[in-house]
Design brief:
The chain is an alpha+beta fold and about 130 residues long. Its EC number is 4.2.1.32.
Length: about 130
Amino acid sequence: MLNPTGGKEAVVEAVKQIVKTAGGKPCPPIFVGVGLGGTMDRAAYLSKRALLRDVRLSHSDPRYAKLEQDILAAIQSLGIGSGGLGGSITALHVAIEEESTHIAGLPLAVSINCWADRKAVVEWKEGEDA
């Protein structure tokens, strides 16, 4: 839970510290999902949902898109690198999903996926059997 008066800098620093603590354990380069707002359980849900976003896309709100870029730059500055062996690329993408929240706190949750992040889509057309 962040103090809402900490601003964007507090969000960037919190995510950076979480990634720093994880180090090479999640098998970087990583994908980072950030959930902001709601309640703590909603923030956790949002961080997972953020990982489902197409990595070619940034947040639709330019303020959050900029925050995604700032977080990615902060993560790269850690120098954890591929496989945790050092290097300039620690993360491949940062995605943020947000929700309104109470003014007294700012729930933050971070979910991390390894480089082998996989997604699939299944579509059923009307009238087809599953």
